[in-house]
Amino acid sequence: MKNHKLKNVFREGAITTEFIANSIAKHQVKTSIGAHNIFLGQVRADEINAKKVAAIDYTAHEDMANHKFHEIREAAFLKFDLTCMHIYHSLGMVKSGEICLFVFVSSKRRKEVFPAIEFIVEEIKLKIPVFGKEIFEDQTHQWKVNS
Amino acid sequence: MKNHKLKNVFREGAITTEFIANSIAKHQVKTSIGAHNIFLGQVRADEINAKKVAAIDYTAHEDMANHKFHEIREAAFLKFDLTCMHIYHSLGMVKSGEICLFVFVSSKRRKEVFPAIEFIVEEIKLKIPVFGKEIFEDQTHQWKVNS
Amino acid sequence: MMITIKYFGLLAEVTGCRSEKMNFSCTTISDLKEILFQKHKVLKNKKFKIAQHNELNTDKTKVTSSEIALLPPFAGG
Amino acid sequence: MMITIKYFGLLAEVTGCRSEKMNFSCTTISDLKEILFQKHKVLKNKKFKIAQHNELNTDKTKVTSSEIALLPPFAGG
What is the pTM of this model? Predict the structure, then answer.
């Protein structure tokens, strides 16, 4: 098992498309990679009791979350033959249509990246102490629960 | 079954990270989307008999390929609950480290995008008449075969 | 011993408190929950998990950290 | 009838030809292959599939299109 150092997965606000593009571009020097798979979580403007979600305000138990992200990373590197893996999650306000989760895996072969990305995303949903306050257009709110 | 019109999937040369970023950005107005999954095929600098692949020169039976891409799209829309789907494939020279295939699916829910992206990529590998000439650094070549 | 209780998300909202210090002499998470339920009655009908040392605990886990986190349902991604 | 044979990838390279017209009076893909093998002996030990109307054919398929494509193994993605 490779011993990766603890990273801070959190970023303030939405994850921009420029950030994603830069992240992809950085992998073009790694010419043993044949396949990338990227998962993006986008905030939905869900309608709940005739009120529309305008944004989600994310908070987290950051220290525990970064430790859990680290465990998920290590488990994924052990289960799948991956060259690279990156995970970024937003904190604070992310408007509907904006991106709040960016998971990026790369491998020599495509067969590895499909189960890897699904494993990582499901583990994140299950194990990461992140909390989301869904802010409606009228400024009222409710607390999001993962399904 | 939605009736989508036949699109030209091919693009001359490598698919740039700017193109990918733009494509993602265009989906930020579609606020019913909760999950995107992106597959990127990257040209590997494989070493074969001590010679390194410097680029792949792609050609295709374009008319048949676009028809087959269309069939794959329609089948994927029927099998999975997708909001959007985009496929782009390079023609001509793509250097090692550059991107030659970009598959992008979006859905309300994450559970749909994982099997959808794998289905589409496997179908492309199997059914699309695209041919790849692997150009080595010494300008000799061999013809790539999908595994 | 003196421990810090941290409340996250919905729990910070309903208790009106993100963090509080308390003197604690019991031994298990279950004991701690009883004390917290007395202090913040609103917690009784809320779903939450308790973590210390960055790990989730069960009711039987012993309290060994001076920092305890109360975590409402997760909503990452 | 006059048909156009299109060669792709490796097949264009080994036959030295991307497209050629020929007068064709037989009826099946199998017949056509025999003629092509005589003309381009190099094709005999190459793997390829034959398509017309944008669909792959078997040896028994009748030739109904004026354009026939010879496709070496696929390498998309």
Answer: 0.95
- Closest residue on chain D to B120 (Cα): D77
Judge whether D77 lies within some domain: no
ipTM: 0.95
Rg of chain D in Å (alpha carbons) = 12
First to last CA, chain A: 31
CB contact under 8 A, A89 and C75: no
Q: How far apart are CA B112 and CA A124, in angstroms?
A: 17
Mutate to test the interface with C, among A9, A44, A61, A94 (most CBs of C within 10 A): A61
Interchain proximity D69–B129, CB inside 8 Å:
yes
Question: Residue B1: what pLDDT?
Answer: 43
A111-120, C40-49, D4-13, D26-35: least confident range: D26-35
Question: Among partner residues B31, B41, B96, which is closest to A45 by beta-carbon distance?
Answer: B31
Nearest to B61 among D8, D73, D77 (CB): D8
Cα–Cα distance for residue pair B67/A46, rounded to 1 Å: 36
* Amino acid occupying residue A75: A
In a domain, C46, yes or no: yes
- Least CB-CB distance to A124: which of C51, C72, C76? C76
> Which helix (H) or strand (E) is B122 found in, with range?
helix B110-127
Which residue numbers of B have CB closer than 8 Å to A's CBs? 17-18, 20-22, 24-25, 27-45, 96-99, 106, 108, 110, 113-114, 117-118, 121
DSSP calls for A107-140? ESSHHHHHHHHHHHHHHHHHH--EEEEEEETTS-
Q: Are A37 and B38 a contacting pair at CB < 8 A?
A: yes
- The pLDDT tens digits of the residues spanning C39-65 come to 999 999 999 999 999 999 999 999 999
State the average pLDDT for chain A: 96
Answer whether residue C14 is part of any domain.
yes
Inside any domain, residue C76: no
Domain A10-143: which CATH number of 3.90.1150.10, 3.90.226.10, 3.40.50.20, 3.90.1170.40:
3.90.1170.40
* Side-chain-side CA neighbours of residue B121 (13 Å): 28
Residue with tokens 């005589």: D38
Confidence of residue A3 (pLDDT cuts 50, 70, 90): low
Domain count, chain C: 1
The domain that holds D67 is classified in CATH as 3.10.20.30
